[in-house]
């Protein structure tokens, strides 16, 4: 029988071991998290309250904002907790739970970016049939199907992880529980886990990647054939925001997961992880709001209505106070 020491607690390496950096890092990432939640929540509220934004494109954008809030909430709060304590201890059960939700939001976001590519394809290449193809029922079914698959997909990885034994080893070279890093600290045979991870990454990831980028080949071809310069500019504007988000997300994720394993890359891996787990959910609302005229108009309208409501409330308070003084 193999001599194994069961270890129910794992250690995360964190972003930095320097004590002097813990407080600045805590404040920076706390600010980033608050901005991420506020920005994405603002987008959801605008889409829900403004009738001009209740279209399939903004329905998907609102869904992306909800996923970004959940996606950042899986990793950042735990990281914020570890900065002041510096213990960075996490149980196996908590680690596997974090992996489940991380993979769920990761796959959901990948699928949603693919759905948004298809939406742009229909809007630009088949504009006359847009309302028939991108019907509300179709949009809801696409999102529902995406969520069902994203819920079931991580279950296979979790079930295989639960069969592994974990023994004393070096800390996980990450600030959160990531599937490849967790497999490295297992004292069981992880061949099946690694094989499943690579096969699913190639099949599922490859299909989603193709579904995301292939429509843009047709879209770019259609845009170049447009006679009107204004139409080309508008089409490029609506697509550029989405493409920017896709390149940031996929670029950092591919760098983190598809380069040769080496200890020399641990610092670069952490930087890449910060980009696709922390910064991407932050920049998504900024990219979509700053480059979208309709979103900016909606925000100005909401702020204007808020000021009017504030003025009415203030006037009512003054009127009530004067009335009370007069009656007394």
UniProtKB/TrEMBL annotation:
Transmembrane segments annotated in the record for this chain: 25-46, 58-79, 99-118, 139-162, 191-218, 239-259, 271-290
G-protein coupled receptors family 1 profile domain span: 39-288
Membrane topology: Multi-pass membrane protein
MF terms (GO), sorted A to Z: G protein-coupled receptor activity; olfactory receptor activity
This protein's record includes keyword rRNA-binding: no
Predominant place of localization: membrane
Gene Ontology annotations for the cellular component aspect, listed alphabetically: plasma membrane
Gene3D superfamilies per record: Rhodopsin 7-helix transmembrane proteins
Compartment(s): Cell membrane
Domain of life: Eukaryota
Swiss-Prot/TrEMBL keywords: Cell membrane, G-protein coupled receptor, Membrane, Olfaction, Receptor, Sensory transduction, Transducer, Transmembrane, Transmembrane helix
Protein's UniProt keywords contain Transmembrane: yes
A Pfam family of this chain: 7tm_4
Family note: Belongs to the G-protein coupled receptor 1 family.
Protein's name in the database: Olfactory receptor
Organism the protein comes from: Hymenochirus boettgeri
């Amino acid at each position: 029988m193999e001599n194994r020491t069961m270890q129910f607690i794992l250690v995360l390496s964190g972003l930095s071991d320097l004590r002097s950096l813990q407080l600045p890092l805590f404040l920076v990432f706390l600010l980033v998290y608050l901005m991420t939640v506020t920005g994405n929540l603002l987008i959801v509220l605008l889409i829900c309250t403004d009738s001009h934004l209740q279209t399939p494109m903004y329905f998907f954008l609102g869904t992306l904002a909800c996923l970004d809030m959940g996606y950042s909430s899986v990793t950042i709060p735990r990281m914020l907790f570890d900065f002041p304590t510096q213990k960075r201890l996490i149980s196996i059960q908590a680690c596997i739970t974090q992996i489940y939700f991380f993979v769920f939001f990761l796959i959901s976001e990948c699928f949603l970016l693919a759905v948004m590519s298809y939406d742009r394809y229909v809007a630009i290449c088949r504009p006359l049939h847009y309302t028939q193809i991108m019907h509300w029922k179709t949009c809801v079914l696409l999102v529902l199907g995406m969520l069902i698959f994203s819920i079931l997909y991580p279950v296979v990885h979790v079930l295989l992880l639960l069969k592994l034994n974990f023994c004393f080893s070096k800390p996980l070279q990450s600030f959160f529980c990531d599937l490849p890093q967790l497999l490295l600290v297992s004292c069981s045979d992880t061949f099946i886990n690694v094989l499943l991870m690579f096969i699913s990454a190639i099949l599922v990831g490859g299909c989603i990647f193709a579904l995301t980028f292939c429509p843009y080949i047709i879209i770019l071809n259609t845009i170049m054939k447009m006679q009107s310069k204004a139409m080309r500019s508008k089409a490029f504007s609506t697509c550029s925001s989405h493409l920017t988000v896709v390149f940031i997300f996929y670029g950092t994720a591919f760098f983190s997961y598809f380069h040769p394993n080496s200890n020399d890359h641990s610092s670069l891996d952490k930087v890449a992880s910060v980009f696709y787990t922390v910064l991407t959910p932050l920049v998504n609302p900024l990219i979509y709001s700053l480059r979208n005229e309709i979103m900016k108009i909606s925000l100005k309208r909401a702020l204007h209505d808020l000021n009017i409501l504030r003025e009415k409330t203030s006037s009512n308070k003054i009127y009530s106070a004067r009335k009370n003084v007069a009656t007394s």
